Amino acid sequence: MENLQILVLEDNLEEAHELTLLLETNEYSVTHVINIHEANIEVKKQVYDMIILDIMIDGKPEGITFAQQLDADEIRIPFLFLTSIQSRAIFDKAKYTKPFSYILKPFNEMELLYAIELAIETYHGQENTISGATTNAVIGPEFLFVKKQQKVVKVNVNTINYIEVSEKYCSLICDEGSYFIKLSLSKIKDVLANPDFKQTHRNYLVNVKKIKELYVEDNLIILEANYKVPFSARYKAAFLKEGLFFR
Known about the structure:
It is built from 7 helices and 17 strands. By secondary structure, the protein is of the alpha+beta class. A 5-stranded parallel beta sheet has the order 3-2-4-5-6, sandwiched between helices. Strands 12-11-10-14-13 form a 5-stranded antiparallel beta sheet.
């Protein structure tokens, strides 16, 4: 599990401290910069999951300028504006940069936390997932963003040992712990779309890179950390065809 990495562009140190404190209390990792020069350095040296931009930096709408630079440089990171500016002209200019939200100061804490969730969902094309009733995760081929209490955590797909499914619910058994999400096996296979995950049983998906031993006659797979999962006859042929070897 990784904390979401959030970049904050805010030149008011007091407001930056308040915002950072809120985000870190909810276990987000925060990097604070005070101008777009520092912001440009950061986005080119580290991967961020989210950017929160003040619009007016040193009296100029440089938050908008930075958003335009992200687009010009083809740096794809979801971002939102957090500003005290209520000017319609500024808003019209800001919306053309396609932010995921536009929040006015003083902000409501829950509003901001919800906005972060919605931005992650929308950016990954899975609306009404983390914050909705259908599931509690955004799923991609490399990372999962899972709702855990009031925060969103980032789970590297490579750390998943196996996925156990019961009806419309999945347990993700990872190196660092387990996560419970509301999703059927057929749906998680579709949205995960990762060739490293193979079905070994009607209720199990296994990360083949985590396989340590396979026992055909015993219908058993041993994974790293000695996890044991069933291996039904229905799926053995596929493993053999792909060149995996058995004991």
